[in-house]
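Good morning,

Both structures are done.
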Amino acid sequence: MTELLICTALGLEAWAVRRGLDASATGVRVIRTGMGPRRAARAAAVLPESGALAVAGFAGALDPALRPGDVVVANEVRFGGQVFPCLSAPLLAGELTRAGLSVRTGPLLTCDHVVSGVERRRLAGSGALAVDMETGPLAAAADGRPLAAVRVVVDTPRAPLLSAATLRGFNLARRALTQVGPVLTRWAAAAAPRTVLLAAPRSFCAGVERAIEIVERALERDGPPVYVRKQIVHNEHVVRELEQRGAVFVDELDEVPAGAVTVFSAHGVAPSVRDEAGGRNLRVIDATCPLVAKVHAEARRFAGRGRQVVLIGHAGHEEVEGTLGEVPDSLLVEDVSQVAELSVDRPVAYLTQTTLAADEAEEVAAAIRARFPDAEGPAQDDICYATTNRQAAVRAVADEAGLVLVVGSANSSNSQRLVEVAGRLTPAYLVDDPGDIALEWLAGVATIGLTAGASAPPPLVDAVVTALRGLGAVLVEERKVAQETTRFTLPKEVLS
């Protein structure tokens, strides 16, 4: 483990941090610097050698939404006109949240006096979440070491120091501070220089870009609200951003006012949904991925030739529901074992959900062909180019990595398949953003593979790399297995 130095100002803070540390924790030293920036600066000048530096203790809230006992993890420390970044803040904040604490991430301000009243409100306008009197000089002395600043709120604008609520605030803050030490030891254990191998291609595919642009253009053309049936793509960050711009996501069309602008998601819908939209005079814009639309067309074509349509896919996925809806008597199989249970009375044709792991889908398809020698499949592989490329790329980085991180939301099929593919070669985990990364995964890992599902925004990958830089120097290398040039045209409804 990297040697960790935890600086606190007060004896009570040092006591609370030490109390939370496991007796077996080694390489951790808690020191008391004294209160105020002058004492902190003197302590900073003689700090012992350490591999990682953390400042922990109490703080006063500037943001009125904070309450006593809330934990502020600084993403930057502001002091004396300087700004000291704390790049690993999302990793720490996520770990503290999983420990059961109420956590906010944002700027921490260091002042040379206790602030209150009008000054407190003025400083809150700067965007800083909280204020203390020691972190700034200590952050200035980090000198390239991994730096963390974790402060627990004691007083707030509504409950200032030396008020009737002070004692309660201290008790809540003290209890929270005892839980900070163990997290900081895991943070230090994860601190190290490392290599990050970026899989390429990664992140958005052409179908996802098209779907998002459709909603954005609809909002620009018609103004909010624009209704979207289901998530436009399976990513929480994308959905949240579009909601902030005026998109309203609904599960079913009966939640949409008659005549409203309505977008069908990239995963496609069954004909019954289209009929319902027509019956309610909804102004529909179809964002179905053209590659999903191809599978729908294949299902209709095979059924029109009298064949029993069998779809290889995952039950409950929106794409699967839409494809099955094209042919009401079609059958779904999820794995090889279900092929043996198929009961059919006519020749078989099989199709595939576009976001499956290619090798597993082929295993099921081979079982279908073995049981039904006259079975027909699609003229071209149904699994989309983006899924295939991303799976090949993640294999390339997993071969060299001690750990693979896949950025994507839990309901993203293509992201889940990337975890499965990488997981056959090395430990692999799905994360929605840096806050989902468990520090214990990183300990002792010198090389990390990093990719993102086709519905995950590229900036999230950058955010993971930035957070890892907060643990030590990062060398980034890319492993490219394909060049993607596919682009899809937009529907006429958003071109006018």
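Second structure follows.
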Amino acid sequence: MPLRSRVPVAVLAVLVTVGVLASCSRAEEPSSSTAPVATSPAGELRLGYLPNITHAPALIGLNKGFFASELGSTKIIPQSFNAGPDEVGALLGGSLDAAFIGSGPAINAFAKSGGEAVRLVAGSTSGGAQLVVSPDITSPAQLKGKTIATPQAGNTQDVALKTWLKQNNLPQGADGVTVQNIDNPRALDLFRSGQIAGGWLPEPWSSRLVDAGAKVLVDERSLWPNGRFPTTVLVVRTQYLAEHPQTVEALLRGEQKAVEFATGNPAEAKTVTNDAIAQLTNTSLPPAVLDRAFTELTFTLDPLAATFPRLSEDSVTAGVMPTETNLQGFVDVTALDKVLQAAGKPTVDAAGLDKTQR
């Protein structure tokens, strides 16, 4: 009889007990430590993004061919959206594999799926959002009785505005400030006609309102340490990430090229971004708007993970979410760190949000 078949039952029981205890002790392992699955490059990658300058790395990556060249045989299928909450619906519905998306909608996608559907894999853009208003408004109190636009209910700028109003003791509604969710081009038209007093908007729309006569009342950078907060990040469906990590790494290499292009060739980056926006919206940006918008933001692969607990808290303050989201397991920068290390660059801080609780 083989030796292994003569192991006493008591010993087997001990071994099983040790194994159970060991698995229970891994309460905070990285989410990437889940049971391995068979992986392979994907046949296609459906990628969401917005036609905004805050999504310039996505626009550059697509139009300069950086994504396509890194993805190789994987077909990239780009899909443009008007605002982040629309992307959330597509991600949760399974019609998108990855998305450049605002930080607020990224949290919402994670929360709505019980922490299952998506993972934050990289950053994209920091800054580039402002509250711009009629020049006669010089203080928060003067917003009472006014209508202020945000792109969509629950989007990143909507959360920022509603949180700021709460912090400044400004109620919403007839007795305070009316927050109206309006598509960005329509917000510009309504501001020009005097039907709204301004908006908390991403670039280039805050710069477009400034070009139309608005002034900056709040630069969102002033509300964050060192002026750094994630306006746009990159999320991937959890199942897609598990099944196609090679494809996600290729996407990140493409984004890395796009970020390096944007920071190293700003003049050409403006042209490429403007041309892409014109193709999607049938409207190009005036040079002054383009120049101003690019000075208001920073492109980075760092998701600035440490800011997300506060962003989750802000969603509750803004009334967008009923409770704060447990963000454990939300971040997975395994693929990003591999890409950065291969390029000889430092890895990013996941701020402990790459751990899951079991």
